[in-house]
Amino acid sequence: MSPPPRKRGRGEKAVASSSIILANITKHLKKDRTVGAQPRWITSNFWTDWDRGSKKTFVAELKKYVKLLDSHDTSSKSTDHKSSTNGVSEDTNAVAATLEEYKSAVYLLIRASKGKRYTTLARACNDFLGFVYMERLDLENLQDTGAVNNKKAFSTKVIRTKTRIYYKQQKFNLFREESEGYSKVVSELCNPSSDNSVSYMARVIPCLVGRFNLDPNRVIDLVLEAFECQPNCKFFIPLLQSLRPSPETVCEIIGFKLQGQDRPPESLFVMIALLLQNNVIELDGIYSWLTPDDRVIHKEWDRELLDAREYARKSMIVSINKDKETDENDEMNSAEDRYLDNQKFLLIEALLSTGGWPFVKKLMDRLPEFCLISKRRIALKLIHFVEFMIQPLYATVHETTDRLGKRPITQLKDMSMNRKQIRNWSDLEQEMDIVLSIGPYVHFEPVLMYKLLRIMRTYLKQMKHSPPTDLYYKFLTVLDEVILPGLCFLDANCCIAQEIWAVMDYYPYQHRYRLYGSWKSEAILLLHPSLLRKRVDVLKKVKHLMRRISKENVKPMGRQLGKLSHSMPAVIFDYVLSQIQLFDNLISPVIDALKFLTTLSYDVLSYCLLEALSPGQSSNSASLSVMLMPNRPRTKHDGSTISPWLQSLCSFTGAICKKYTIELVPLLQYVANQLKAKQSLDLLLLKEIVQKMSNIEAAEEITNEQLDALAGGDILRAEAGYFGQVHASKKSASRLRDASSVNDLAVTLCILMAQQRHGIVYDDSNAIHTKLVGKLYDQCQDTLVQFGTFLSSSSSTEEYAKKIPSIDKLFLEYHVSADASFFLWRPLLSNAIIAKYDELRRAEKSHKSMSASQRQEKYALAANHILSPLISLVSSILPQKTWEDITPQFYVTFWSLTLFDLHVPSDSYAVQISRIKQSAASFAENKDMASSKLKKEQDRCNSLIEKLQEEERRQRDHVDRVMTKLKQEKDLWFAPRTAKSAKNETVTAFLQLCLFPRCIFTAPDALYCAHFVNIIHSLATQNFSTLICYDRIFCDIIYTVTSCTENEASRYGRFLCALLGTVMRWHGNKAVFEKECARFPGFVTKFRASNSSSAESSDHVDYENFRHVCHKWHYKITKCVIVCLESKDYIQIRNSLIVLKEILPYFPKVTNLGAAVERWVERVRVDEKDKRQDLFALATSYIGQLKARWNTLVAEEDFHEKVISPEKPVKRPAKDDSSGSSSTTKDAKSKPIPRTEPMEVSTTDSAPSKSDAPATNPSGGSKTSKPTSTESAASSPVVTKKEPVEEAPVPKPPKASSSSESRRETSKVREPTESRSENVVEKSSKSEKRSSSSRPESHSSSSSKKESQEVKVKKETSSSSDRRTSDSDRSRGMTKASMQRK
User: Fold this and answer.
1) What pTM does this model have?
2) Where is this region: Disordered (predicted)?
3) Crossing angle for the helix pair 599-613 and 569-582, nearest 10 degrees?
4) Which helix (H) or strand (E) holds 1287?
5) Pairing of strands 1286-1287, 1235-1236
6) Phi-psi region at 326: left, alpha or beta (left = phi > 0; alpha = psi -120 to 50)
7) Which of these, 878, 877, 867, lies nearest to 972 by C-alpha position?
8) Would you call 504 exposed, middle or buried from its count of C-beta atoms within 10 A (0-12, 13-18, 19+)?
9) Of 1281, 1358, 1362, which Cα lies nearest the Cα of 1317?
10) CA 460 to chain centre
């Protein structure tokens, strides 16, 4: 029964009526009601004058209305309540009119203020309506109206008053309570019908408590029992809120229930969860009653982590006596029992089923991270909760057809308390912490993974061209902490791997690689024991697989490897790469086995490759390749060569990039970053990638046939210039080209490689072995040429022009040397000239009928138009002193042309056409080939033959046009200075600035330099001495050979071989010599002051004198080679053997010189047999090839006209028994072979010039610094007949017993030659004095002074060969610096 209502006085009734009118007036604001006449007391300035008088007026009018109502109420009681004829009294009508007037007044006032002055009117009436406000209005409006000063205090007072009135009872009757009351309470609670509303029960229960003297706590217990039995009923929560029990009391009651049962039912925890969410109880109040203690849960979690680590440790140990495996069913049963005994876990499960995420979050923060979610039942509840939350958003981004049906979504138990579902992207961003809390245990329900991935993919697709948002980065966190770790538990699920890649493809590789690094790190393993166990199991499988993979079982093993890689690709590839580093024979089968991977796995493989290649890895990293090889040196223990593991890894990377679609930008960017850090070893990676993907080799072991084919057109180069077929790798080459275009990587790599060449020599030479310096320099040089060739051949002219900076930037801004700069720009210049030539030719009306001379003239105009700006630029870049000897036009002409412009490889074209015809014939003979395929192959061969023939014709026309242009400008190449300049400075400048830098750049450039020297001679170029040029090149090659790397020595040998081929062609046929040399300016022996082009016949070298000079050059080469071989220095010995091997077709040609070279090489072979095996192999190879060509050698008297001296011959030194050559006999000692020394050459000047300064060496340094006596040869290339002098014996290897004896014997051998050189210098100086008697004294004194210095230098050079055996590093640095001084 409800308590009786309190009686009111008549004044209170009137006031209440007025307050009702005021409180309900806002309803009229929503209606478009008709307002009566405006009262007179409402003026237009009513609200403006509120504080000055309007307020008092309003209160007075209200009081009048209240008084009127009061008087009306009094009069109505005194009458007999008789109605009038109308049924309504006149007083009632008056009151109604007054009431209507008052309502209209208040309505007008509130409407005039736009509804904002309601509280102002209420506050004005607060003095006599305050008690009505407290009774009628809610707490929110009480304080606004001013009826209550402190809302909180008033609320507390109201609660206490109600408690005192309705719930307080006497305790003396507790033991005399009647059971009928409890029965009544139970009856009411167990039948909550629609008639029994919450308000009814809230009135009935207190009445029953009072009527039957019931214990309130037991009554609350009964309510909770009924709630537990009916958790889905929405009746009990409002009832408990109405009864207002103490939260502590409720927690104690529930706590007794929890402690009184071994395993409380699930309904009890559901009830607790609902009470927590409706704020009936507090989490801290109930948490203390739950078992077990938090410390017990922490200990159990730590034990799980330790067990997982122990499991991983035992997996790395081979155990013979294996323990009996425990029963998995028993372990699962014990884990399930422990879970059911944990009341905190059951409460969290109930909270998730009812949507109580905030309380779950608080409990997760109290317990170890991921300890709760690792339990399957809790994880499934959380997954269902997340799935329920995202369902509206997922329905908008991904719709399925009705035919497929829709998967039912698990609903929460209390739908009235459901959280707000996620319907847009902002909601998703706010609720992202729920998704992140799942962790890798999302694998229990893969459907949720699919839904999350599709939502992320839709968002990233929409925001593809927009700046990144917070949600963009939060998705990265979801991938890092949820999706990728969850994939590890899904065995062979390639579909979800593709879904993951569809999302990750929207992120750049920097973000992806960071995710992969976190995926495979140890940090995530320490948080999830099950993930650690899973990783150990996968490792066991991949180890078993890698032990059995071979070429015969690639397909089945590849399938198994693919299945394993779907879940944990990073772990799989780390182990695979570690095995490849150890066993390079696994490269081929592993590459074939990787064809079953997903796109995600290929991307992870590229990351693992980069991580394995990166230097400075920590030994405690999670990378298995690093764990197997923690201190991976990138060079061998001696520091002279690159480690085999790095070579294997780079080779594998190149092959995998060619066969499969792997992103190349990270690999190229890694190489660029390493070059910026001055690390050159990783250029091996770029070299392998370019070679495998484009079939453009960087190997120096190229054959002569291939080298000749490289001088042809594009088709000939593609067919015969490389070991592989270039056209067979167009797809992979296009992928590499596109990757190099990203972030200007092509330009960056080219410039960095060009700069790094000199950095290797001058920056790193002190830190690493000299042999490794040479290898790194060769690798950098070869990779630059290889990559530049690939860019120019795979890109169009416009694309290539956009990539390469201007040549002035290369010179001035990037400080790239001339050889590399012109190498990069040469294709652009050639294409620009051809385009301009076509433009000029087509501008003529009769361009189709133009003669060859007219075409050549147009080509010359086009070349001048294109090269003129470059000539002006070069003249301003290099010092002005440079152009005193050569002109900028010659400099640009030399560097802009290629072998394609000077030489037509007719033999290569013929050979290739013949091969294609043979191939077509073999197809025709093949009877098994289908007719359609046969016809297709024959058509292809015929088309290719026609293309080659057309290309040869075009190249021949092009060479003719270039030669015509060279003939026109040849007189402008060399400055017409004095005769002395033509003899020394011009040749020196040509060698320093043009010839030597380019002849060691590439093998085709070496042949180009030899061809260009021959063309300068054949064009009869003025102010250039071919004889001096050859003499400077051949007479002293020690420093040049010593300063070369291994590949440079090979190129330099090819250059010398080409020059020797030309020389020996002139030497072998007098008619050829007379035709090509006899009357040419390059063979003039006297340079006259007038620089007249006409020369007497006596001014040229005749055929026999040229043969003497050729013998002298062979003798000088022999001496230089022997000096290098006896030096004991690795670089000198290796380079000299390489040069000897390259020039073997034309050197040696004389029997005695060949025997001397053979003896010294044999000595090197014997000495290095057990020391340096590479030198031993080189020496052995050369001796075998030399013996095979021994029958081509001739005697000295057949090589040139030999004059025997009647003087006493010098004895030949005894042969060394340990040298491996034939033993010395008594006859050899008593009868030495008399020979004449090679004839020295000299020139005479007919005009006054500067005194003969020592000529510079081939690499740019001064001759006076060289340890050999070649001064006379450098300055006197023409033979002058002298008195017969016996030739010095050819040097032989000294005895191995004494190094001092060796030096003495060597000095004895050199003595006649050196004295002979001094005699030549004296006679040459006398000749110069006679021819320059008209010189001023200053000139003659200067000349005599320098001549005496020259003689002094000659004497110093005869001291010892120890000066020639200086450290190779010092000689390398000095020579490189001198080569680049200009």
Assistant:
1) 0.72
2) 1204-1382
3) 50
4) strand 1286-1287
5) antiparallel
6) beta
7) 867
8) buried
9) 1358
10) 23
